[in-house]
Amino acid sequence: xxxxxxxxxxxxxxxxxxxxxxxxxxxxxxxxxxxxxxxxxxxxxxxxxxxxxxxxxxxxxxxxxxxxxxxxxxxxxxxxxxxxxxxxxxxxxxxxxxxxxxxxxxxxxxx
Amino acid sequence: xxxxxxxxxxxxxxxxxxxxxxxxxxxxxxxxxxxxxxxxxxxxxxxxxxxxxxxxxxxxxxxxxxxxxxxxxxxxxxxxxxxxxxxxxxxxxxxxxxxxxxxxxxxxxxxxxxx
Lengths: 111, 115
Description:
The complex is a heterodimer of chains A (111) and B (115). Chain A has 111 residues and is mainly β.
């Protein structure tokens, strides 16, 4: 069964304090691993797709990396506006396009 | 990416009534849309896959007679919660899959409160 586990559940950082969020997954035939950002009361906002181990993608202060078992979302010198819940999801070859989501990591960045 | 809208953004209804939520794909034709439900402090749970011109595919445990899905056009899917009860109160979110890279783009969500 495809499964996604994210850690930590919550993370509090000071502005400028870099850190990483973890997403561990098991999936049959990875078609893609996705990172989303969700602000309270809003739908998830697409950030990145990673397709194969070793792949990396960057956007502003965020960098996503992928291995065969996990993905990391690195946040460099975060700002208060980076505060949100970050969701990881996978799509596998047996899921016909469906996304399996982790529980998310809620990030709070204090000024 | 893709732009998705939902209407209404918030709705309050009385127990026993039905409520319809619309999901629109604004900038491309979506043969497939997805409906999710999210309870407070929890992640997204897929309810059903909406297929244009055919019946929706429901996830295990989701009552198809209670959550009616209609995908009558390539830009519109609707979710109707029938005979709503307080336990149906949740945040309902739809998404579209442009189909090229397997990623999904989400609408802003609809907050349903059943009193």
